[in-house]
């Protein structure tokens, strides 16, 4: 059955590539899984390839990319699933691609980013992963993923079935993830933000897990980086932050913001452990890596500099906004907020009220809202938390993204700073298509 | 959010909002209701302040509250809320609603106000018994009620004068609610599932309290409901019938129009 699946799916893969109808398609993988539901498990049996799984709400694509590029630089052969293909069929497609018609070519590493819900299911097929990276767990598209607590329970259960020698790289600043590690992982390496990145003075609004995952009491935080990430202790049951690797690392040139420093740290931890090198050497491997498309991606278009930042949930959006000072310093620019409500964005846009959009006014002299829900976003912008600090920015709402982008160009005054687009997933793709002129998926 | 005060000189009316467990019952943009309500008050020179009704809030403080708001919570958090709410706090909350204090409960919070909630797993959770209704989760095999919603408000059930009666929102709930004899529906379902997916009712009205399955930022999408509350709160507190200054609502009207067109309702 397995070879049957491999044969037909491979033909499909070849046809799709030959006809140029969507590279990176998940269809070949889907065909393989339809013929042999255990295709992934069968193809990995006795494989020497070390499999690295990357999961979390935010940062999967960036972290995977850093790891893949680092491994390549260290002259290892690597296969990986392209972003947007992070369900089982995406993984099956990726594995298919590693087979030649003559037989198997086993790469040194396979790096798979996995959707929050696909992760527990993937573990029933990938039964011997080499390493698992748990990045963070925030509320995201409750209409699709369900509640944070339920997700973490599924993860913990799935992990408890894995072999004891599986290595874990866990963000110890996230209490729920640390708790999963303490209960289920025998080889866990915890990382956390460096002290200079833990400067939050009060508990932010976008938190999900500030109650003890063990006993339900409110956690005490001695330091916070963002959302519910930080150093914590439960005064009731003594559950507390594990020992973490927080030693400062030199930030990467093309990645800005605390959230990217978490991603960088996760990648470095994995690389130095897997390649048996020092953290400094691991950092050097990824020094020149550029962001994936739409993740703080920079380009020139219409005579202006632009930065596009994918922002798809409250913690992600808040982090994008906080990172703006690193791009702009004290200058102000035109900021375009694109809010779509298509299925990949999440059809429910209620979450915009959990984002600290007030802070956008610190960086904008003009705010243009656009996308399917341009007006909902405009109402949000008109309703800041403190009525006195609406800022003096001009606010404009335009459903049509093309017109909105033109409007950004017209209103942009200071060419020393880029125009910034903060967009949900399909908004980001559309903005890129309009500005850079080609579709990506 | 901590106690916040927006100061306006010479403001005749002051409204104190009691926000039920902001940290625990704030699943998906619920605070939009508070921010937006404050904004509409602010534009009419009405002073507002917010007091969190949380573990640090004592039952005695309820006397100062003019408007009660409750948002949604995830299951674990709901348990923590009930642990804190039982006893004196629930009694005073109940009598506040009985006395006619205006209140808005969105998302999952109306379930807490009912007689009981039967979750998909585990024991039946006793509600505060303020609303004459029962909520049952039919099990994980039955799909949740998720999606955009449109409804038509029965303003007469609130003895309120006629105003924009179309409400728009988003629902995402597993539980199904059946209303009893002593409670009236808030709206008729035009699009969506409503209380139970069967009887075409959405939400509930009891005295001056409104509950609905619409979740998150309900008031920013429905300024007429926000204004209804402001007028009713002033009526209850100051015994004065006021007609609020009309606001431009440029984006509000456009946002509503876009959605109603998309759903082919206009």
Written overview of the protein:
The complex is a heterodimer of chains A (441) and B (266). By secondary structure, chain A is of the alpha/beta class. Helix content of chain A is 36%, strand content 19%. Chain A has 15 helices and 16 strands. In chain A, the strands form four sheets. Chain A has a six-stranded parallel beta sheet with strand order 2-5-1-6-7-8, sandwiched between helices. In chain A, a hairpin with a 2-residue loop joins strand 3 (99-100) and strand 4. In chain A, helix 4 (60-73) packs parallel to helix 10 (258-275) and helix 10 (258-275) packs across helix 11. The radius of gyration of chain A is 22 Å and the shape is globular. Chain A starts with a helix and ends in a 5-residue tail after the last helix. Chain B has 266 residues and is α/β, with parallel strands linked by helices. Chain B has seven helices and 15 strands. Chain B has helices at residues 31-42, 75-85, 88-99, 109-113, 218-221, 223-238, 250-262; strands spanning 4-5, 14-20, 47-53, 67-70, 103-106, 116-118, 125-126, 133-136, 145-153, 166-173, 176-179, 187-191, 201-202, 204-206, 209-212. In chain B, the strands form three sheets. In chain B, strands 1-3-2-4-5-15-14 form a seven-stranded mixed beta sheet. A four-stranded mixed beta sheet of chain B has the order 7-6-8-11. In chain B, strand 6 and strand 7 (125-126) form a beta hairpin. The mean pLDDT of chain B is 92. Classes of the chains: A alpha/beta (441), B alpha/beta (266). Chain A binds chain B through residues 139, 142-143, 147-149, 205, 207, 210-211, 216, 347-354, 372-373, 375-376, 378-380, 382-387, 397, 399, and chain B through 1, 4, 6, 23, 26-32, 35-36, 38-39, 42, 74-77, 79-80, 146-148, 170, 172, 215-217, 220-221, 251-252, 254-255, 258.
């Amino acid at each position: 059955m397995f070879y049957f699946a491999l044969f037909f799916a491979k033909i499909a893969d070849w046809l799709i590539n030959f006809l140029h109808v969507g590279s990176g398609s998940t269809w070949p993988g889907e065909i393989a899984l339809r013929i042999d539901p255990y295709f992934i498990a069968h193809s990995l049996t006795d494989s020497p390839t070390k499999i690295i799984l990357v999961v979390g709400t935010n940062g999967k694509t960036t972290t995977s990319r850093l790891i893949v590029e680092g491994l390549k630089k260290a002259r290892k052969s690597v296969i990986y699933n392209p972003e947007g293909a992070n369900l089982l069929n995406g993984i099956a497609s990726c594995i298919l691609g590693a087979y030649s018609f003559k037989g198997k070519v086993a790469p040194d590493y396979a790096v798979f980013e996995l959707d929050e819900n696909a992760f527990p299911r993937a573990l029933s097929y990938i039964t011997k992963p080499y390493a698992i990276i748990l990045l963070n767990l925030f509320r995201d598209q409750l209409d699709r993923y369900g509640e944070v607590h339920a997700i973490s329970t599924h993860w913990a259960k799935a992990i408890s079935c894995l072999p004891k020698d599986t290595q874990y790289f866990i963000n110890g600043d996230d209490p729920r993830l640390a708790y999963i590690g303490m209960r289920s992982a025998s080889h866990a390496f915890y990382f956390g933000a460096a002290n200079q990145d833990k400067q939050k003075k009060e508990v932010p609004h976008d938190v999900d897990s500030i109650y003890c995952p063990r006993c339900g009491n409110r956690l005490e935080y001695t330091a916070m980086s963002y959302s519910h990430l930080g150093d914590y202790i439960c005064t009731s049951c003594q559950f507390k932050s594990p020992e973490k690797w927080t030693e400062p690392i030199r930030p990467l040139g093309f990645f800005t913001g605390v959230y990217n420093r978490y991603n960088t740290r996760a990648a470095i931890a994995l690389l130095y452990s897997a390649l048996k090198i020092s953290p400094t050497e691991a950092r050097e491997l990824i020094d020149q890596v550029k962001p994936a498309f739409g993740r703080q991606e920079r380009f020139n278009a219409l005579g202006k500099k632009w930065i596009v930042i994918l922002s798809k949930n409250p913690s992600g959006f808040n982090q994008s906004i906080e990172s703006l000072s690193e791009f702009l310093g004290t200058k102000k620019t035109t900021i375009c907020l694109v809010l779509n409500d298509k299925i990949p964005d999440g059809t429910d846009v209620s979450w915009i009220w959990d984002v600290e959009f007030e802070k956008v006014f610190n960086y904008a002299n003009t705010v243009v809202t656009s996308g399917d829900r341009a007006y909902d976003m405009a109402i949000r912008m008109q309703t800041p938390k403190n009525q006195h600090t609406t800022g003096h920015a001009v606010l404009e709402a335009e459903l049509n993204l093309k017109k909105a982008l033109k409007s950004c160009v017209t209103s942009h005054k200071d060419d020393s700073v880029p125009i910034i687009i903060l967009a949900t997933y399909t908004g980001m793709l559309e903005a890129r298509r309009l500005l850079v002129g080609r579709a990506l998926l | 959010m901590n106690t916040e005060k927006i100061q306006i000189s010479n403001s005749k009316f002051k409204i104190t909002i009691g926000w039920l467990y902001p940290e625990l019952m704030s699943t998906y943009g619920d605070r939009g209701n508070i921010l937006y309500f404050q904004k509409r008050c602010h534009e009419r020179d009405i002073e507002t302040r917010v007091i969190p009704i949380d573990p640090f809030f004592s039952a005695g403080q309820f006397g100062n509250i003019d408007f009660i708001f409750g948002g949604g919570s995830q299951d674990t958090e709901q348990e923590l809320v009930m642990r804190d709410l039982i006893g004196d706090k629930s009694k005073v909350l109940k009598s506040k609603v009985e006395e006619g204090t205006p209140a808005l409960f969105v998302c999952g919070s109306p379930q807490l106000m009912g007689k009981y909630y039967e979750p998909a797993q585990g024991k039946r959770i006793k509600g505060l018994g303020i609303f004459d209704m029962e909520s049952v989760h039919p099990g994980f095999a039955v799909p949740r009620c998720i999606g955009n919603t449109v409804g038509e408000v029965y303003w007469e059930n609130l003895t309120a004068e006629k105003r924009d009666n179309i409400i728009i929102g988003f629902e995402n709930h597993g539980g199904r609610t059946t209303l009893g004899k002593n409670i009236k529906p808030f709206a008729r379902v035009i699009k969506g599932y409503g209380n139970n997916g069967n009887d075409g009712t959405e939400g509930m009205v009891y005295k001056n309290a409104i509950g609905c399955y619409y979740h998150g930022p309900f008031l920013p999408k429905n300024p007429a409901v926000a204004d209804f509350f402001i007028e009713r709160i002033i009526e209850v507190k100051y015994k004065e019938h006021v007609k609020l200054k009309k606001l431009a609502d440029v984006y509000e009207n456009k946002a509503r129009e876009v959605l109603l067109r998309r759903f082919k309702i206009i």
